[in-house]
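Reply to dn_fold:

You asked what the input looked like. This is it:
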Amino acid sequence: MKPMKWFLAATGVLSLLGILALLPPSSQAAPATKPNIIFLLTDDMGYGDVGCYGGDFVPTPNIDRLAAEGTKFTQFYVASPVCSASRTAFTTGMFPARWRMTSYLQTRAGNRKCEQADFLDPKAPSIARTLKEAGYVTGHFGKWHMGGGRDVTNAPPFREYGFDEHAGTWESPEPDPIITGTNWIWSKYDQVKRWDRSAYFVDKTLDFLRRHKGEACYVNLWPDDVHTPWVPKGTDLEQRRQENDESAPNFKAVLREYDKQVGRLLDGLKELGLEENTILIFSSDNGPLPTFRGKRAGGLRGSKISLYEGGDREPLIIRWPGHVPAGRVDDKTVISSVDFFPMLCQLTGTPLPGSTAFDGEDLTDSFFGKSPVRHKPLFWEYGRNNFSFDYPRNPRDHSPNVAMRDGKWKLLVNADGSGLELYDLEADRNETHNIADANPEVAKRLSETALHWRKSLP
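and this is what came back:
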């Protein structure tokens, strides 16, 4: 190279380096890797099932470890007291009845009686699809129950909701043959036995993360424990019928094994070096049934398929080492499953789909030591008729079929305006004293709002 050309080239390089030196550090550095997200959704876990929420059925040291290493929320709500509808809210960020989900998905005839669709419309928002479009690799391992199973054979495949990989249970569009030896939830012919399914889903999750290490991953880890049937290891499958054996010893054995698998997940993340860059969300889809006389609901009134607190108030733990405060208990923030879509988008810097009117709101400050005030009320419905929704049979737990929470107030009312109940949850979280008559203006305002919401639904 000639001296003059060499001089000009060197001058250009030095000028470029000088410009770079003047830029802020964030402009020079490569973008940080987005956090992995594991959404660990337990099936039918009660508010009082685990030690860190006051449960004493069996020790749950690994779930308790999550709470010790993260933040525990005591006022977290799911959007429905039953699985399919509740899972729809987590997935879409919207109240499930907006997508014609009102109960658990079953046969086509049963779905018609519940005034619901046979599967979640793939046109609905999907947090997995939104994150995938933002560069995440996505997996679903475990129970789906938003389409497929029984006589519903045309449910959309997992990919239409944004999943790259999947291993679903029987109630899904593409059941994993390893765990579905027959056309039922479980059987003695399954290659992976009922008591090993949580371990199987944890293995699938860790393998997915291992193969995609260095990429941002979103995983639904949705086991079907601790839902009945409770089939502990050592059960004689030749003698055991498919019907549920809802005994306390069987429940305790299944809960003990489930806690063990939570521990395996935590240890696996550490071994992979992913512990500090992984947001782990732990919760449940709805309350327990049976409740063992309310004990599994932590003393809260109600159960699964009830709009009292025992049906829709659930454990929630968020763990993200170095970001989410360890050992913190948030007993102030009222947070809902419909909030997760906007919150996960906020946490990952992902734009929300612009044309969607989400029912949730961004309360991510609650993950980082603050207690933001909720601005949107919460609404629930369960029970569109007196035959498909004639549960729970316990009169004390059988709630009116519409409910809402606004601030400290929880109101329940039937869709025809009867059965009005009002509770101050700050003073009476167990919903023991109906104070509607003592607060007629509040009761009237909230009932009108709740019934207007109910009438707006498909």
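The chain has eleven helices and 13 strands.
Hope that clears it up.
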